[in-house]
Every structure is written in C-alpha cells, then in structure tokens.
Amino acid sequence: MSKSVTVMVTSAGRRHHLIETIRSDATELGLALTVIAVDVNPNLSAACMAADHHAAVPRCSSPDYIPSLLRVCTQHDVSVVIPTIDTELPMLAAARSSFSEMGVTVVISSPAAIRIARDKLLTAKALSDAGLPTPRTLRLTDALTDSEGIPGRVILKPVDGSNSVGLIRLESLQRALGLEIDSHQYVAQELCAGDEFTVNCFVNADGELLCAVPHRRLEVRGGEVSKALTERRPDLMDLAPKVASAMPGLRGPFCFQAIVGDRGPRIIEVNARFGGGYPVAHAAGAHFGRWILMEHLRRATTALPEWEDSLLMLRYDSAVFVHGHRS
Fold first, then answer.
1. pLDDT single digits (tens) 241-277
2. Could you give the domains of the chain?
3. To which H or E segment does residue 94 belong?
4. What pTM was computed for the model?
C-alpha cells in the first residue's frame, strides 16, 4: 500500500503548475498525495479549484492567519506546508514550532534568513559583506543626502517589495526629489545593464545546497517570468553556495536574481521561497517537491547530478472550469 502524504499550499492563487509539479514528484516516489490549497478567496483561485480540497483563510497580515492554518492542518491531517509568497514567510517561520508539535513540516527558512531576504538593504549588506557582487544600494533618504550617492541611472524599490510592484527607473537620483513616495520605505539601487537571470536553488535540512539551475528571463509579465531558457552558466552556479553561506538559515527552495553585463554577474535580489519561474527548473529535472517529501519522510536527499540545459519555457494563459459555481 502506498504511503499517504497531505500537502498544504498556502496563498495558492494561480499556482496551479506548482501543485502539478508536487503531484508528479509524489507519483515518482510512489506516494498517495492529497493537496489542500488555501487562499483568501479559494472559489476564485485556479490552484484551489484544481486541488483535492481547498479552504478559505484570512490574509496573512491577520492575527488569525496562523490559527486558521493550524485548524486546516488538523481538519485534513496535513503533513507538509508549502508557503508561496514573501509576506507570509515571517509569520510561518515564527510559528514553525506550533506546526512541528502537530507533526507538520513547514518548508521554510529561519526567521533570520527571511528577515534578510525580505529587506533589500539587509540583503545588499549581507551579500556585500560576503564579498559577493551586488549593485550599490542605499535607503533613498540616505542616497539623497550622501555626497557620493549613486551616480548614473538608478532604480527605486520598496524596501520589502516583491513581484516588481512599485519599481521606478530614473535617469538620475536627483529625479527622485519630485516623486510623491515615502522615501523612508524605498531603497535606491544602481541600475545594472545586461541580461537578467534567476537561479533556482534548494538547500536540504542539513544546509547542503543540492542544486542551482539558472534560467534567462526572456519575458516577464506582472513581475513573473513568462518566457525563460535554462542555461548552464558556471558564473551563476558558483555564486549559489556563496549566497546560501551569506544568508545562513536558508532552507528548502530559494532563488536569486542577477544581472549579467560587461562587469559579470551582480546579484540584485534573493527570495526565500519557490521562485515564480520554478516550473522551468522542475521541467529541467530539479524536482524540489521530491526533496521536500523525502525530507518529511526522513529519507536521505542527494544532490541533483544533472539537469537539462537550453530548455525553453513558453507560458500561456489556460483556464480551470468549475461547473455549477455560485459566488
């Protein structure tokens, strides 16, 4: 008889493909998988409709968010929780022991690693202190009063932003003076020229980096890659273990973005979660769901020996149809 595992995917939204990758990984391991997807409005979530079961939970900013997730875990006998968005990571990391007491594995990095990844100033400092290439990054208020500042073109980012929300590209830092934004909540970063890459990585429970799969971001829609090409680039792959060392406590899936120009790669962001473009890494052979399930079952994980180079991903809009739906 196949062993049964129930996985809960939080903030499921449109992450239908992520659920399908976990299902295929469970099948590969001979596991009977049940997927629970939760969201604020599951009836309008494609991923929730495609899951075996779904449930409504409050927004992650609500004090009832964690208690709601714990109730769903109890109701459905959840084994593993997989977060998907940045804003829920701090709460889930802080509550990890509450889940663990119920026998539930939360696939998440340490609170310290998440705090660094969620703050672009802390990320830039951690990378720079580790000797990793990263563009000059300052809090906007400091950049505007710094005698050196940031020469040339700059990009302004919310200090804890994600999915490219709130990005402002400027020809010079001085043009920021006329903007109606809270300069305390923005960072100014040197705008790098070159090709943009994401590197999907996985660190096991022992802190061992199992893989680093770069892909070129050919097209981006709404902050998420829609066209991508895997590329075996040693310059990016060699950075992965150094990023993991610079941010101790990274566990499970994480990704970093880099711009590769005339000066080589420079890391612009680190995300302590599944990257939006992860499906291309999975299709190339990097089965993160397999490692997640193996770790929960206390089976040994081994590094990925090989993955497919030059694999092109072309995303398109599809649909999930729900018959007899009542809003």
1. 999 999 999 999 999 999 999 989 999 999 999 999 9
2. 4-108 (3.40.50.20), 113-117+193-314 (3.30.470.20), 136-190 (3.30.1490)
3. helix 89-94
4. 0.94
